[in-house]
Structure formats: structure tokens, C-alpha cells
Write a structure and sequence with these properties.
Keywords: Glycosyltransferase, Membrane, Transferase, Transmembrane, Transmembrane helix. The protein is of the alpha/beta class. It contains eleven helices and eight strands. It has three domains: about 55 residues, no CATH class; about 170 residues, 3-Layer(aba) Sandwich (Rossmann fold); about 50 residues. Strands 5-4-3-6-7-8 form a six-stranded parallel β-sheet, sandwiched between helices. The longest helix is centred in the C-terminal third of the chain and has 44 residues.
């Protein structure tokens, strides 16, 4: 009974390139606004102070600060408090922060997409969640990934391989290594250039993701379920959908051909080799 499936991806830019049925609609980056909302006053003022730009640091909403080992939090604070950029750090308990530094602003909740759209943002340190990665790619912000679980390691591998940033293991994070990675991603223009090219591909669509959702939802309603868009596979049984009938018929044909081939060779062997054996036996009898 499924008429339509929305897929959180954009194969043309992200890959992998693969065939799709009409009932699968790609809406990657649907959470991204075409025009960002104005930032809260305190965040906007903090970013404007950044003469050397700013860094956004967020490990998502599922991973709380209390779930991270204290020595890892200390490592992160030491590294971020030493950089010359302004740092916005998503931290749940703003009354108990990792430490105080003039260049760090702690916030329990962040308008992440709107912040990434700000021209002062030079780096996004994240956990490589799909949503955050898509937002950074859309806005052309280089990344430093600290993946933890689920799809995050795979997303981090992909963004590093694509040249959109670097990744480091969160559990064994080292201060010097962390600082060096931050310096590399911000200081080397190749990451921003790669993302600028990707962003152009990611944005270039006939409709925005939001417009696609509205159009195709209304399309299904207009056409009473749009059964004509369904793949025939939906209505096939297990045998037909997995081509088992084809495989069985093919196997039978091959087996029959094997038997015919075997019978023919037996006939040829008896016809020609059998005669030569009889002739040699007659010669032996005559000699005796």
C-alpha cells in the first residue's frame, strides 16, 4: 500500500549513482532553509567579534556532555580555548561547563543551520551525523569529524575521503593532534574549495527538498494513491521477485544439455573407440 517513499539523500551530488523507481523521491537536506533566520542577538554579537572567524562545535543532541569521558572533555577544552577563533560549543549544562575562556560561548540549544550559514564560520566540529554533515556541505563549511556510533563512522570516512575535512577518534583524542587538525582544516583552502564545488551541485535542483515533498504528496492525493508509480515488484510473490523461477528453469536447461552432451559422447565413444578395440582383438587372435 506504499505509494511514495522519501529518501534523505541526493545521489547526484552525494552518490552512489543507482537506478531508482519513480516512487522514491530524494529530499536530502530538507531541514536546510533556503534563507537562514536571523541569529539570536548574543550569538550574532559573539560571531561578529571574531576577527579570525569562528568554529561551531556540536556532537548532536543524543550525546550529552556527561556521556563523554572527563579527560576527553578536558582535551577538547584545552584545544578550543587555545585557538584564535571564536568557538560556539553546544553544551547541555551551561551552569557546569568544561571551563571558562573568552573565546568560547556555551549554549544548550543552537540554531545549527542558521549558524553554519554565517560567513564567519570557518570550521564545523561535529559527530558526523547525517543532518549536520548535509548542512555543512550545503553551506560550504569544512568539517572535523569526531564520530561515535551508528552511521557516524561511515559518514566521517566519506567526508574525509571526499576532501571535505578530517576525522579523529573521540575516545583517544590528543590535544596536539586535535589542535593540528583544526589548524589544517581552517588553514588549508583545499577543503573549502572542495565544499564550494559540492555545494553548487547540492543546491542545483529543479525543486527544493521542501517543494518536492509538497508536490509529490499532493500528486499522490490527486491520483488517488498513484498506483501507476508503483514498481511491479510490489505485487510479485517471493519466487518471482527473486527470479527463482528463472534460476530453476535455467538450471533445468543446463542439466538437460549436460545429459544430452553425456549421451552423445558415450555414443561417439562406443561407435569409434569400440570398433578399434574389436579390430585389435581380432588381430591378436589371428597371431595366436
Amino acid at each position: 500500500n506504499v505509494s511514495l517513499a522519501f529518501c534523505n539523500g541526493h545521489a547526484i551530488s552525494e552518490g552512489p549513482i543507482r537506478p531508482n523507481v519513480p516512487g522514491i523521491i530524494e529530499i536530502g537536506g530538507i531541514q536546510i532553509k533556503s534563507k537562514p533566520d536571523p541569529l539570536p542577538e548574543d550569538i550574532n554579537e559573539f560571531l561578529d567579534k571574531g576577527k579570525h572567524g569562528a568554529i561551531l562545535f556540536s556532537l548532536g543532541s543524543n550525546l550529552k556532555g556527561e556521556h563523554i569521558q572527563p579527560h576527553v572533555v578536558e582535551t577538547i577544552f584545552k584545544a578550543l580555548s587555545s585557538v584564535k577563533q571564536q568557538v560556539i560549543w553546544k553544551w547541555d549544562d551551561t551552569k557546569n561547563t568544561p571551563g571558562q575562556s573568552a573565546n568560547i560561548l556555551y549554549k544548550k540549544w543552537l540554531p545549527q543551520d542558521d549558524i553554519l550559514a554565517h560567513p564567519k564560520i570557518k570550521l564545523f566540529i561535529n559527530h558526523a551525523g547525517k543532518g549536520g554533515v548535509a548542512e555543512a556541505q550545503y553551506h560550504g563549511v569544512p568539517m572535523l569529524a569526531l564520530p561515535v556510533f551508528a552511521d557516524q563512522p561511515g559518514n566521517a570516512d566519506k567526508l574525509a575521503e571526499s576532501g571535505y575535512g578530517l576525522q579523529l577518534p573521540l575516545a583517544t583524542l590528543d590535544v596536539d593532534e586535535f589542535k593540528a587538525a583544526i589548524k589544517e582544516v581552517i588553514g588549508n583552502p583545499k577543503y573549502a574549495e572542495k565544499l564550494k564545488a559540492f555545494s553548487q551541485l547540492y543546491r542545483d535542483r529543479p525543486q527544493t527538498a521542501q517543494e518536492s515533498v509538497v508536490y509529490w504528496t499532493e500528486y499522490v492525493i490527486r491520483h488517488h494513491g498513484a498506483a501507476h508509480m508503483q514498481s511491479p515488484l510490489v505485487h510479485m510473490n517471493f519466487i518471482a521477485s527473486n527470479n527463482l523461477d528463472i534460476y530453476i528453469i535455467t538450471a533445468l536447461i543446463l542439466y538437460i544439455l549436460f545429459l544430452i552432451n553425456k549421451i552423445v559422447w558415450k555414443f561417439v565413444w562406443r561407435k569409434f573407440c569400440g570398433k578399434s578395440n574389436k579390430a585389435s582383438q581380432k588381430k591378436k587372435v589371428k597371431k595366436q
